[in-house]
Specification:
Elements lengths: L2 H11 L2 E9 L5 E11 L2 E11 L5 E8 L7 E7 L6 E2 L3 E3 L5 E7 L22 E8 L6 E4 L10 E6 L6 E3 L6 E3 L6 E3 L6 E3 L9 E3 L13 E3 L8 E3 L4 E2 L4 E4 L3 E3 L6 E3 L5 E4 L6 E3 L5 E4 L6 E3 L6 E3 L6 E3 L6 E3 L6 E4 L4 E3 L3 E4 L7 E2 L4
Parallel strand pairs: 2-6, 3-9, 4-10, 9-11, 10-12, 11-13, 12-14, 13-15, 14-16, 15-17, 16-20, 17-21, 18-22, 21-23, 22-24, 23-25, 24-26, 25-27, 26-28, 27-29, 28-30, 29-31, 30-32, 31-33
Antiparallel strand pairs: 1-4, 2-3, 5-8, 7-8, 18-19, 19-20
Length: 366
């Protein structure tokens, strides 16, 4: 089916519309669709990946919009670069105006896809299609907005968005997205889906990250901020969202991973998943059910109001579960558990029983 036919489908039945407006650019950006085969959730799958790659020196403003498409077959992506001509790759074609490209992307669908409607239809083996977007915004002042949130196939597309040292604004849709905004004062907004934001190796703020209102149990499908590459200490309080000393504002975060410094991470009223990593860290849970993982270093873990899971790593650690039935698991090193109200512990060299009436039991070390 050629692009003219696909355009007619878009005009009559709707399509997935992707408009990228790039106000100032040094040279042409490249847009293409890559189709590959692989494995998804342990099953054979096909992948349709829209790729946008900015040229050096461009300031990009990328917007994604969605309407319906031909059942189970195609989505039409319209790509517009208002700052410079586009270069079209496979499955894309540049219009005569030179600034708009139409791209043919296979529509995401599950493994039970049938080519027709009604009873008695037989699923087509190997017919799963997974939608991806790989957006490389380059080194300028950029923005990316996915306006498909809540529309058909929105959650079926997982976006990987990277940017450079400019001040960027990135807003993703309902898929499980990976965002690397790079250095600079950035604003990141996500919606549904288990999203992950990578932080820079050195403080570069102030940044604003709003990771949506989708709250999941600690560590399961929650949005994540990853400081794994950071060597300077990170001090973050989920109740305010503020990162001390940087001016960063992080809200809607369920999982936070510290770096190699001496980090201080505090939870809030939602389920928290706090990981200290290397360094001598202080992890403090909130009023809900939390998971605290100390990692290497001499850490202090403090649970909150609900039953919590506290797991120390190597180093000399102290773990206090709080006033509920908590699980404390110590690791290598000289560790102590402060126990109260039915807490269970394992592999801790020192136990100190605080005031409480719960029944305590040892947690097996295996």
């Amino acid at each position: 089916m050629n692009l003219v036919r696909l355009l007619k489908i878009a005009l009559t039945g709707g399509a997935l519309l992707l408009a990228l407006a790039l106000p100032t650019a040094a040279s042409a950006a490249t847009v293409s669709v890559e189709v590959t085969k692989g494995t998804y959730q342990s099953e054979e799958a096909n992948f349709g990946n829209l790729r946008f790659t900015a040229a050096p020196g461009e300031d990009n403003a990328v917007t994604v919009r969605t309407v319906t498409a031909e059942h189970g077959v195609h989505l039409i992506l319209s790509v517009t670069d208002r700052g410079a001509p586009l270069t079209a790759g496979p499955r894309c074609s540049v219009n005569p105006d030179g600034i708009t490209a139409w791209c043919d992307v296979p529509q995401p669908r599950g493994p039970d896809y049938t080519p027709g409607f009604g009873k008695g239809q037989i699923p087509v083996p190997g017919s799963r299609w997974v939608g991806l977007m790989t957006i490389d915004l380059g080194d300028g002042r950029n923005s990316f907005t996915d306006e498909r949130f809540g529309a058909e196939h929105d959650s079926s597309f997982a976006a990987t968005v990277t940017a450079g040292a400019g001040a960027d604004r990135i807003a993703t849709g309902g898929g499980a997205d990976l965002i690397d905004p790079g250095a600079g004062s950035d604003v990141v907004q996500t919606n549904d889906g288990a999203d992950r934001v990578l932080m820079t190796a050195a403080p570069d703020g102030p940044d604003v990250y709003e990771l949506g209102l989708d709250h999941y149990p600690a560590g399961v499908g929650a949005d994540e901020v990853d400081y794994n590459g950071r060597s300077a200490p990170v001090e973050w309080d989920a109740s305010t969202g503020l990162v001390a000393g940087e001016g960063d504002q992080l809200t809607g975060v369920g999982n936070i991973l510290g770096g190699s410094g001496d980090d201080v991470l505090r939870g809030n009223e939602f389920e928290d998943f706090l990981v200290g990593g290397p360094g001598n860290d202080l992890l403090v849970g909130g009023s809900n059910w939390d998971v605290l993982l100390g990692g290497d270093g001499d850490d202090e873990l403090r649970g909150g109001g609900d039953p919590d899971i506290l797991r120390a790593g190597s180093g000399d650690d102290t773990a206090y579960g709080g006033r509920d039935h908590d699980v404390i698991k110590c690791g290598d090193g000289w560790d102590q558990a402060l126990r109260i109200d039915g807490d269970r512990q394992g592999r801790c060299e020192v136990q100190r029983f605080l005031d409480g009436s719960g029944l305590d039991s040892l947690l097996p070390s295996s």
